[in-house]
What we know:
By secondary structure, the chain is an alpha/beta fold. The chain contains twelve helices and 13 strands. The strands form three sheets. Strands 2-8-7-6-5-3-4 form a seven-stranded mixed sheet, sandwiched between helices. The termini are far apart.
Amino acid sequence: MNLKELVNPRIFDVPDYDQAHVTKCWQDPSIHRQMSNESNYAPIPAVQEAIRNVAGQANFYAEDPAYAASLRGKLAEYASVKPENVALGNGSIEVLDLIFQIFMAKPGVDEGILLQPDYSAYTPRMKYFGWNIKYAPCADGMDSAAKQVIQLISPNTKFILLSRPNNPMGTVMPEAEIRRMLDTGVVVIVDEAYIEMADEGTSVSAWVNDYENLIVLRTFSKGFCLAGIRLGYMLATPELIRYINRSRHIFNVNLAAMAAGEAAMDHLDEYRAIFKKLAQTRDWLTEELATIPGFKPIPSQGNFVMINVKETGKQASEFVKYLLGKGFMVRDFSKKAGLEPNTHFRISVGLPDEMKELVEDLRSFA
């Protein structure tokens, strides 16, 4: 059997998304996980209890996410929209797949615009669904992002997709730039995965009430310390929410994820304390890294810090390898599209004592 003649040929254009670093950390729990922007804080006790409490009911299906009125209502209140503006997913990346799927009418013709650099998972998923991808170069900053994006818009452009705060840089595109893109009439998808660690007032979720062409993505994987639960959601016009619910799998969000999401919404004050700790540790880490000769940390509003090490005379991969030897798994961005080769690596913010140890290790090597 020649399987290559049977499968969707687009699969051959999809690059592998390397997650071996996650497996390595599970195999060796002594490694500090500073690579995937997870939270090093465990879920709060109330969330852990909620997950345990539904274990005895796992023989039943959870509510289908098209209903789930309680959870959707709490998320709507949190995001300053209405319940009919909320769709749930098995992580925000599943919701993004659904968006790619329902907007695709002409594979190989329809276009989406991405920023560069941006989240590396966007490109392979778009390629799989047959999107033509245009990249707007934004390595020099987000203040002129709209100009870079708008000049790429064509009659075939279906959407613009960006993360805000940006992953992997941690920077935030100014609101005026978002509005300029929205005013083109093209759908703008704003991925707010790291919004809980950003400055107050950064979110554009409430804009969904005013712009029919705005989609906002959210996740519980970062600030809410629930990466392993896989719960995400999108905010959009009710019409688009209906289309998303028609195209997704039934029962796509599991019972434990729904229970965890509800408990998190019921204990926001406890989580806001964690958001604050993460932001404070991130800012401390940025300041300390800046004192190391040759280090140029990029001010971030996520739960991570990207560092340009070009002036150290060493390659980024050297620091990544050294830190792994010290028990810290960080992410190498030596080959990241949109960044100068061999110059950047990124640290996910961990617990304060761990970050102090990491900084001292870097001082001894830089």
